[in-house]
Amino acid sequence: MRRLLSCLFLCLLPVILHAGEAPRPKVGLVLSGGAARGLAHIGVLKALEEQGIKIDAIAGTSMGAVIGGLYASGYKIDELEKLALNIDWQQALSDAPPREDVPFRRKQDDRDFLVKQKLSFRDDGSLGLPLGVIQGQNLALLLESMLAHASDTRDFDKLPIPFRAVATDIASGEKVVFRKGHLPQVIRASMSIPAVFAPVELDGRLLVDGGMTDNIPLDVAREMGVDLAIVVDIGTPLRSRKQLATVVDVLNQSITLMTRRNSEEQLAALRPEDVLIQPSLASFGVTDFGRAQDMIDAGYRATRILDARLAGLRPKEGMDAELVAARTPSQRTPVITAIKIENDSKVGDDVIRYYIRQQLGQPLDLGRLQSDMGTLYGLDYFEQVQYRVAHKGKQQTLVISARGKRSGTDYLRLGINLSDDMRGDSAYNIGASYRVNGINRLGAEWLTRVQIGNEQELYSEFYQPLDVGSRYFVAPYAGMESRNVDAVLDNDPIAQYRLERYGFGLNLGRQIGNNGELRFGVGETWGKADVRIGDHDQPSEDFTEAFYELKYSYDSLDNVYFPHAGKDVGVAFRQYEPELGSDQRYRQWEIKFDKALSSGPNTFILGGRYGRTLDDAEVVISSFQLGGARQLSGFRQDALSGQNISLARAVYYRRLTPRAYLPLDFPLYLGASLERGRAWNNDNEFDSGYINAASVFLGFDTPLGPLNFSYGFNDDDQQALYLNLGQTF
User: Fold this and answer.
1) Are 194 and 156 in contact (CB under 8 A)?
2) How far apart (Å, rounded) are the C-alpha atoms in residues 351 and 443?
3) Is the separation of the CB atoms in 231 and 216 below 8 Å?
4) Within a 10 A sphere around the Cβ of 688, how many other Cβ atoms?
């Protein structure tokens, strides 16, 4: 009996010793919104962990919801720091996928000297405007990839740390507090800054940034049953009268006024036992993602200053194991057992499924899936293409959600090209293209291109894929062109012809991944060449051409306007054949090549062109053309023509402006080029000899497209000024 009483006493001793101690208070963490300034939250969490403070609940808004949701789901502090420092924020906060993921046909849309921005139209012909400048495609994909391990958790109280996110119903103005749902989607809704990011449709609501109604969600943390709150306020301060200089400044100030009003209401509700942390962020802007480390450090310092105040919140000895357990990440790579397509777009489910390379029975390959999402989005049929992992028992289904574009899938693009040789001879071209997308479930499209000016063109092509992946296609076309061609005798121009062509043809092709395309085609053209300027005794030409041709194109450039990596290759062979109806039999081929190499802000492009006419033919009809900026600079556009041409060039440019971390990044470049080229005819009546040329240029990648100012000169005593919007090289 005595031994039994002794054992009972030992068991009850801890209870007796702690009977007089107050229970540990339940601590809630409140993380406010503030865009890039929210990265300071990571420094706050780092300091709290170093002091051993256990967080029992987290409530966050906007960027506070991002950091809070990641931490609540199991991310460690060093993982959060690594993410903040290594994420390509410019890519994440845009919609455009990396160009390497864009389908080849969409890459070619940028090669008609047209500006990069396009207007979209709905099926009824009305102009379609999006609900936000940024649709959030890449941001949503990033959140999905980071939170794949939490996809199965619909109740946020079951996360390692209970979590709440705040959003705003833009239709009613009501605050929406998320206790359950799909965590990446909830966080995406919480940070949808109005007009900047498109709202998120969820449960019948149209949701925007929670900062509109509750930027410091202290009340939400209280509702989670916490005894005291650690509140982190990283809100943007108001600008002074002198700082309000642009419409953007006024818009930002308006948003700040709304968020500060509700923030002050929450701060007024702080209790004596609560802790307020306000990092010193006056020198940081809402887009300063490039200064992530500085903001993390600011949050850390602001928290360590309060060590004495926070000391009372440290858990008693023996609680460290519980703290560590809460921070242990769960398995983040589910094994996919099925794939499901949710699609309301113009293309069929099987088209979407074709581009998803995830293998069943294998762990989720996030890198490959991100690339697949970029390719699908690059097809231009979708407002967003997202994924999630749905769990049911042992089944883990990868769900691909493709939402058709409400703003329309038909696109209009414009462009302009100007040049002047400073001797009274100038040239201009204005162009437009209109593309009708999604004509059938395989993704057929109809492209029409129009150009007026020195070179006139009308071209229309119907592109019909023959399989769900658009690997094989058929493309009938018709068109006309009109351009000036110089006739030269003994290196002196004797006349300028106006060459007109009309024709049609049919191409069969094969796309080779996202970077290449092979086409075989037959076609027929007819037209005339009349003397426009010069010796009118020169004969006019009426002609008929019938041919077959083979073309190979490869494009892996990371940017079509100012590339930093990749290459662009084009090889074309055409044979004019009397058996098909041609007046003459002759062969032509042309090679184009450009390779981009970069180191930091410096880029070199090495490349050129080479074209040959292999047999006797009428000179005016069979000529290639050279001349213009970086095409033998100093000459006006297409000033040289010959049956054979060669061009080699080296182009250098340097970025002068620092990189921005939002899509509103308009870099300025300063560059120069060295070129060497020649044009000659087979009859030996014209040979320009090798001409050395050079240029200097200032390039500005504007919202409309790249704007280039160039000055070129050559050793043939020619010089010219060029203004170009759209085409760069």
Assistant:
1) no
2) 8
3) yes
4) 20
* Closest CA relative to residue 699, chosen from 676, 677, 666, 674: 666
- 605: phi then psi, degrees, rounded to nearest 5: -125, 120
Which pLDDT score, from 0 to 100, does residue 13 have? 47
Question: How many Cβ atoms from other residues are within 10 Å of residue 159's Cβ?
Answer: 19
Name the token pair of 142: 């990033």
- At 677 the pLDDT is 96
Query: How many Å apart are CA 721 and CA 568, to the nearest integer?
Result: 26
**Burial class (CB within 10 angstroms; exposed 0-12, middle 13-18, buried 19+) of 20:** exposed
Alpha-carbon distance 449 to 430, whole Å? Answer: 11
- Does the pLDDT of residue 135 top 60, yes or no? yes
Give, in degrees to the nearest 5, the angle at Cα 151 between 149 and 157: 95
Pairing of strands 691-701, 668-680: antiparallel
Assign residue 490 a region (left: φ > 0; alpha: ψ between -120 and 50; beta: otherwise). Answer: left
Q: Provide the residue type at 210 as one letter.
A: G
HEC secondary structure over 287-339: CCHHHHHHHHHHHHHHHHCCHHHHHHHCCCCCCHHHHHHHHCCCCCCCEECEE
Mean pLDDT within 714-720: 90
Q: Give strand ranges (E) for 564-690.
A: 566-576, 586-599, 602-613, 624-626, 640-642, 644-655, 668-680
Contact 590, 610 (CB under 8 A): yes
Lowest pLDDT segment from 17-31, 315-329, 401-415: 315-329
Instruction: Give the tokens for residue 119.
Output: 């207007």
* pLDDT digits 0-9 by tens, 225-274: 999 999 999 876 666 677 676 655 666 666 677 777 888 889 899 999 99
- Which three-class secondary structure state does DSSP give residue 675? strand
Q: Which amino acid, 329?
A: P
Structure tokens at 114: 């047209």
**Confidence tier at 198 by pLDDT (50, 70, 90):** confident
How many CA atoms, within 13 angstroms, populate the side-chain half-sphere of residue 285?
A: 10
Residue 155 is classified by DSSP as B
Lowest mean pLDDT segment, chosen from 32-46, 317-331, 404-418, 506-520: 317-331
Counting beta carbons within 10 angstroms of the beta carbon of residue 166, is it exposed (0 to 12), middle (13 to 18) or buried (19 or more)?
Answer: buried
DSSP reduced 3-state for 140: helix
Q: How far apart, in whole angstroms, are the C-alpha atoms of residue 494 and residue 501? A: 22
How far is Cα of residue 415 from the mean position of the Cα atoms in its chain? 21
511 token code pair: 């796309």
| CA distance linking residue 191 with residue 184, whole number of Å | 11
- Per the CB < 8 A criterion, the answer to whether 438 and 351 are in contact is no
Consecutive H or E run containing 106: helix 104-107
Give the 3-state secondary structure of residue 580.
helix
**Chain centre distance of CA 236:** 27
pTM comes to: 0.83
Burial 440-452 (b: 16+ CB within 10 A, else e): eebbbbebebebe
Identify which of 216, 197, 81 has the alpha carbon closest to the alpha carbon of residue 663. 197
Nearest Cα residue to 292 out of 59, 599, 67: 67
